[in-house]
């Protein structure tokens, strides 16, 4: 039996292996579009309902302070992750066309991430305090690319080569379980507000264990869920945050003065004032306003 079917119009249904990624991309694009539209319509149709939502029912994603996270933010993140992955996993880096495409992707990624705060807040916060999200996003992209260039790979703590060399169910189950546990640890670390520990920990896995065990940052979702009814733990988190943030704030204030042409080491009162503005306890669940609490 022939593997392909020739149609009278003159083309074959045979799919070359080189076209498979493009076909998968198209199918994923179409399915995601229709599923997203269905979910959004469901959320809109139930917007006026006072009935409590079950965990499996579609609902809007919200961040701290009631910030609504639109699905295009998830799309931008997925595009960036997949783009960097494809560049990093290129079979032959010497192909000129692929190198040129990689340069264009880098330019486009920089332009998008420079406005990431606008995408997140749907407001022109470029020069506002919330605009620092764009700078953070750029630093994250640079850090990930730098780790890949240095030869680090996500989930590198586990020998994923077992997947290729050993096709037994037991070996592959071990690899899958190890990867799932690593991702679960990364989620816990991110919920504790330790973005950089979670990011680097995906490449150096032992850091995830350290981040998952240590205290949460006081404003993070984990602190909101676990510390708001445990004042001693929240107080410890606040004190630890001030201790860790102090040298960072001192360096930032010194750099601001240096750029202004008057480099000087900031005094303690100015540093404490900045720390009071930046560090606060997470609000209790159901309370949208942050609870300001100064560690003494």
UniProtKB/TrEMBL annotation:
Q: Which residues form a coiled coil?
A: none
Please list every transmembrane segment annotated in the UniProt record, as residue ranges: 20-40, 69-91, 103-122, 137-157, 169-190, 196-216
Keywords, in A-Z order: Membrane, Transmembrane, Transmembrane helix
Descriptive protein name: Integral membrane protein
In which organism is this protein found? Mycolicibacterium vanbaalenii (strain DSM 7251 / JCM 13017 / BCRC 16820 / KCTC 9966 / NRRL B-24157 / PYR-1)
């Amino acid at each position: 039996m022939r593997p392909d079917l020739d149609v009278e119009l003159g083309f074959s249904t045979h799919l070359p292996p080189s076209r498979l990624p493009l076909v998968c991309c198209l199918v994923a694009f179409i399915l995601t579009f229709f599923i997203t539209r269905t979910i959004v319509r469901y959320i809109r149709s139930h917007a006026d309902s006072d009935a409590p939502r079950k965990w499996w029912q579609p609902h809007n994603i919200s961040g701290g302070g009631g910030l609504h996270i639109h699905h295009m933010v998830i799309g931008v993140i997925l595009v960036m992750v997949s783009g960097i992955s494809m560049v990093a996993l290129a079979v032959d880096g010497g192909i000129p066309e692929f190198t040129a495409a990689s340069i264009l992707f880098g330019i486009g990624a920089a332009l998008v991430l420079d406005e990431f705060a606008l995408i997140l807040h749907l407001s022109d916060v470029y020069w506002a305090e919330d605009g620092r999200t764009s700078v953070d996003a750029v630093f994250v992209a640079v850090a990930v690319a730098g780790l890949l260039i240095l030869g680090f790979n996500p989930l590198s703590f586990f020998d994923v080569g077992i997947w290729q060399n050993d096709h037994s169910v037991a070996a592959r189950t071990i690899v899958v379980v190890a990867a799932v546990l690593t991702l679960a640890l990364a989620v816990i670390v991110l919920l504790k507000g330790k973005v950089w520990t979670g990011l680097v920990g995906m490449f150096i896995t032992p850091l995830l264990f350290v981040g998952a065990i240590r205290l949460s940052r006081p404003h993070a979702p984990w602190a909101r869920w676990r510390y708001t009814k445990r004042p001693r733990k929240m107080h410890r988190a606040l004190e630890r945050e001030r201790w860790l943030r102090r040298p960072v704030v001192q360096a930032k204030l010194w750099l601001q003065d240096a750029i202004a042409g008057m480099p000087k080491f900031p005094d303690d009162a100015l540093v404490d004032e900045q720390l009071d503005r930046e560090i606060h306890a997470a609000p209790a669940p159901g309370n949208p306003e942050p609870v300001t609490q100064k560690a003494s």
